[in-house]
From TrEMBL:
Name of the molecule in the record: Uncharacterized protein
Swiss-Prot/TrEMBL keywords: Membrane, Transmembrane, Transmembrane helix
Transmembrane segments: 91-107, 119-138, 145-165, 177-199, 206-229, 235-254
Organism (species): Schleiferilactobacillus harbinensis DSM 16991
Keyword Transmembrane: yes
Length: 273
């Protein structure tokens, strides 16, 4: 869902013709791929970029001549002048992704009578950590890209180390944990984590609070599953799990689609940090 200011900038871009339009479209694409930057300042900068390109076009200069041959390099230089987004604005981008990954990696392991940490759990946790870092990786920062590559290689390297030490393939890894204390702690901590995010996102609490409600419902189901055997019946168990899965996916899609609007609202209410 594009905001009003994005639509205005897209309309402004129609003044550019031919290669100028293609160049500025590429440059704007790089700029908008900057979740760490203040949203309003970013779109205002984009408006200035388009106006400058249109003015140069009027005077017979191409956008490539005005900004430089490399659109990505020009975008990087321009992005350095844009203030950073506030913590609340960054969380708006991060929470839906974090919440969906947590729902599909952590909750399935604890919404059952016993917990088993095995190779599948390890791979799931590794994927969760990798995906959780993506909002910070999507930028021109080479140091962050190197960090991402190190995280990406951490599981293969750990697997090789495990095989060398134990002389067993990693797929044989299976450790039974103390079931209920671990699960109970996680079931309580996850809704509290979203409450903390809601406190950090005072201008727009609806994003973490909606996930808090959903995670609280899943946590209540976890306690009922442990203390009330009737909830372990296959029909009831899988029925509730199906509802939770659909709710997580629906909330994720709805919030992800509205992320630009949320960022604009927070950017208007809260100065960049």
């Amino acid at each position: 869902m594009k905001t009003k200011i994005e639509k205005e900038n897209d309309a402004r871009m129609t003044r550019l013709k031919g290669l100028n339009h293609l160049y500025i479209e590429e440059l704007v694409g790089y700029l908008r791929n900057q979740p760490q930057k203040d949203y309003l300042a970013l779109e205002e900068t984009i408006a200035d970029v388009i106006d400058n390109a249109a003015d140069a076009q009027t005077h017979g200069r191409s956008a490539r001549q005005y900004f430089g041959a490399d659109a990505q390099a020009a975008a990087k230089a321009i992005a350095e002048t844009i203030p950073a987004a506030s913590l609340s604005e960054k969380l708006v981008f991060f929470i839906p992704l974090f919440s969906m990954l947590m729902s599909y990696t952590i909750y399935p392991a604890i919404l059952q009578p016993t917990i088993q940490f095995d190779w599948g759990s390890l791979v799931g946790s590794w994927m969760f950590i990798i995906m959780a870092f993506l909002p910070w990786i999507v930028s021109f920062d080479q140091h962050r890209i190197i960090l991402f590559l190190l995280l990406f290689l951490s599981l293969p390297l750990a697997s090789v180390g495990y095989a060398l030490v134990t002389h067993q393939p990693p797929s044989h890894l299976a450790i039974l944990l103390s079931t209920w204390p671990v699960a109970a702690a996680l079931l309580v901590l996850m809704p509290l984590l979203f409450l903390l995010m809601a406190w950090l996102m005072r201008p727009l609490r609806i994003v973490p609070l909606s996930w808090c409600v959903l995670s609280s419902a899943a946590s209540i189901f976890g306690f009922l599953l442990h203390y009330c055997p009737v909830f372990r019946e296959p029909i009831l168990y899988w029925g509730i799990n199906s509802i939770l899965i659909i709710a997580v996916l629906a909330l994720f899609i709805w919030q992800l689609n509205r992320t630009p609007l949320y960022r604009q609202q927070i950017s208007q209410l809260q100065p960049p940090q």
